[in-house]
Amino acid sequence: MTQKLAFFDIDGTILTEKKEIPTSAIQAIGELQANDISVILATGRSLQHITFVQESLNLSSTICFNGAYACFEGKVLANNVYSEEQLKTITEYSKARNNTLVYLTQEECYINVVVDDSVKQSFEFLNVDLPVYNHEI
User: Which of 4, 28, 45, 84 could covalently link to 49 via disulfide, CB atoms 3.0 to 4.6 Å apart?
Assistant: First the structure.
């Protein structure tokens, strides 16, 4: 038997501009689930930044970090992370150019500088907490 899947982005699809889940989205996803269609969130956001959507819609399948992490019905299918060597290279490259880096894991969010305006605007747009400054990175 073929399994039916429905993929949804979060920003501008599931969430309104005010970062709320409209009743119509809740009802539509409920109807899909009632018809044995698996609903999967697909987003560039980190896992920690979509928990409220997952919980509100009773979803256990996600694709996060622009595809680097994938979970279907609670089972992790992909978890591609940078190695320490890769992170060191990226960090050194960024520091040499005075670039801001935000480091995201499934549970945490760090930044390599005191939060600047562009990062503040981005995180406010997503309606999520600002990253924590970590002077060690």
Answer: 45
Per residue in 22-41, pLDDT (tens digit) is 999 999 999 999 999 999 99
Cβ within 8 Å of residue 88, ≥6 positions away: none
The set of residues, in sequence order, having a beta carbon less than 8 Å from that of 15 and lying 6+ positions away, is 21, 53
Please, is 60 exposed, middle or buried when counting C-beta atoms within 10 Å of its C-beta (0-12, 13-18, 19+)?
A: middle
75-100 pLDDT, tens digit per residue, is 999 999 899 899 899 989 988 998 88
- Asked whether 32 and 39 are in contact (CB, 8 A), the reply is yes
CATH class of domain segment(s) 4-79: alpha beta
- Report the candidate in 2, 20, 11 with the shortest Cα–Cα distance to residue 42: 11
d(CA 77, CA 88): 26
Domain boundaries, the chain: 4-79, 84-133
Identity of the residue numbered 67: G
**What SS3 class is residue 95?**
helix
